[in-house]
Amino acid sequence: MIKKRRLQRLTLQAHQVPSALQINSPIALTTEQRHYLCNVLRLEAKSEFIALDRQGGWWLAKLSQDPDMAEIISKLENNSELAAQITLGIAMPKGSNIESVIRQTTELGVRQIVPLFSDRTIIKSGTEIGNQKRDRWQRIAEESAELSMRNYVPEIHSPQPLTSWLDTLANSTLPTWKYICVTSPNAPHLLTSLQNSTGEENSEIIVTTGCEGGWTTREEEMAIAAGFIPVSLGDRVLSAITAPVVALSIVGAFLDTQ
Hints:
alpha/beta, seven-stranded parallel beta sheet, six-stranded mixed beta sheet, 13 strands, 30% helix
């Protein structure tokens, strides 16, 4: 395995990786990928680029004589991921602000983002969020993962009610630390809670943040009943788009210094 090089990175689609890649594996490029590599970047046959397989693998690839095809040359080494899988549950902020959250938390190492309907979200539960919008969110995550040299492209889930998400998590058997960010002055700081958990086995850290106006008392009580620890992000009141970025920054710094 050789170290990564400063080359253009390209995230492969799921259908392009039907099984585990290996050296000499062919890659059938999509129309958009071919246009980007050949027309925008002006790469020619035998030019090299980095292919991300969406499963944590980085591969050195080269364009074939056939502009629709590329070929895997070797496996690359990349170590940019955090030590635990991070899931962000975010009560959807108004407008298109969730796009900014997706960009920044992808850069900070999130592995899954679950947009949530809450009591105070402007978009109410039952509202149909079209595939076109969710596909756009996933593309934003892909672009941000490439730019920040991530191994994984975060999965952007379809929006769901907070209650449904809590029910889903209740069925999980993975060792998990779960935190709900609240504005209560009595809640311990997220960093303090993480430090107090040191030594406990974990494979996933879940953090959830509210929308404008925060969580209702009912929602906080439901989350606590589902095993979430209420935590603070500090003495300042943060906006719905700043809070998840601050939370992920704290989690990332904690994991990077362990």
